[in-house]
Design a protein that fits this description.
The longest helix has 26 residues. Helices cover 70% and strands 0% of the residues. The protein is elongated, with a radius of gyration of 18 Å. By secondary structure, the protein is mostly helical. The chain contains 4 helices and no strands. Helix 2 crosses helix 3 and helix 3 runs antiparallel to helix 4. The chain has one domain.
């Protein structure tokens, strides 16, 4: 199934390659990217709204988007660590 992480790559361009690599192998990361994009999209709608509770909803979604962004960065930082292989025995 195709996935779209373009929005997350726009928000974190310095991690574009790591985003593609992690998204290619992790469904939970792809879901996280989708949730982040959705939260920011809805947040922008509340910011433009004249509804009585718009500011409250905007603040809630802003907090959620910040938490999701932090989680994305943590996962990307963890994915960029290159594990060392087992040392080869000396002969």
């Amino acid at each position: 199934m195709p996935y779209d992480v373009g929005y997350v790559k726009l928000r974190f361009p310095e991690h574009a390659k790591a985003i593609d690599e992690l998204a290619s192998r992790s469904e939970s990361f792809r879901d996280l990217c989708f949730d982040f994009e959705s939260a920011e999209t809805i947040m922008r709608k509340w910011k433009a709204s004249d509804a009585p509770d718009a500011q409250k909803r905007y603040n809630e979604l802003s907090l959620l988007a910040d938490e999701l962004a932090q989680e994305i960065v943590v996962l990307l930082d963890g994915a960029s660590v290159i594990p060392f292989g087992k040392p080869t025995p000396k002969r």
